[in-house]
Prior knowledge:
By secondary structure, the protein is α/β, with parallel strands linked by helices. It has two domains: 2-213, Phosphoenolpyruvate-binding domains (TIM Barrel, Alpha-Beta Barrel); 216-244, no CATH class. Helices cover 43% and strands 13% of the residues. The chain is built from ten helices and eight strands. Helix 5 links the parallel strand 4 (92-94) and strand 5. Helix 3 (42-53) packs parallel to helix 4 (74-88), helix 4 (74-88) packs across helix 5 (99-111) and helix 5 packs parallel to helix 7. The longest helix has 17 residues, at 140-156. Bound molecules: 3-methyl-2-oxobutanoic acid. 3-methyl-2-oxobutanoic acid (KIV) binds next to loops.
Amino acid sequence: xxxxxxxxxxxxxxxxxxxxxxxxxxxxxxxxxxxxxxxxxxxxxxxxxxxxxxxxxxxxxxxxxxxxxxxxxxxxxxxxxxxxxxxxxxxxxxxxxxxxxxxxxxxxxxxxxxxxxxxxxxxxxxxxxxxxxxxxxxxxxxxxxxxxxxxxxxxxxxxxxxxxxxxxxxxxxxxxxxxxxxxxxxxxxxxxxxxxxxxxxxxxxxxxxxxxxxxxxxxxxxxxxxxxxxxxxxxxxxxxxxxx
Length: 244
Ligand code: KIV
């Protein structure tokens, strides 16, 4: 699974055979320049998901439910989840947190025929409770709680589960505990799948410690600097770029 926030990126991911494309609320940090994901709105997420869906032919398209779109009531959660399918072409939604907190919202969304992906561990919408973007599941209590949460989300009907920033051995235990696929980010190699933020793997993001698979930042810097240089030097445009 990889994230995408616009049409051209989604088209490339889809053509590369990425199983799941996630329009993450990481959008706020990655393409909107926000310090966290908390200010991302439903309208912004629907807008980005609509762009992404135009580039997707084969991948499963999952839209991330932003902060306050599912926390207030099951009715609001269902209405917002429904918007992603009706207005932007998503196939499923993802939300952060446990059944203890949001079980009723998850049930309401599922009852309407909308598949739900769970997300536990370092869930960025709770960054203020965690006191920062910190690894979760380190002590015995926290480990037991996360294992419980994973089983709860499977029982509630989630079709897959993102495990974010937890120790690799805990992710392995959870993956063995549940029969739905786990998808890890900073959770070691034993998860059934892996997810990363697109701009991070491209070397165009801000996350430290993420493996980069390309250096898009340098390519863009070279291209933009080349354009500026050639225009200033009067080398571009030339006859071949003129319309007759
Ligand atoms: O918002 C996001 O991009 C995510 C993934 C990192 C799982 O939730």
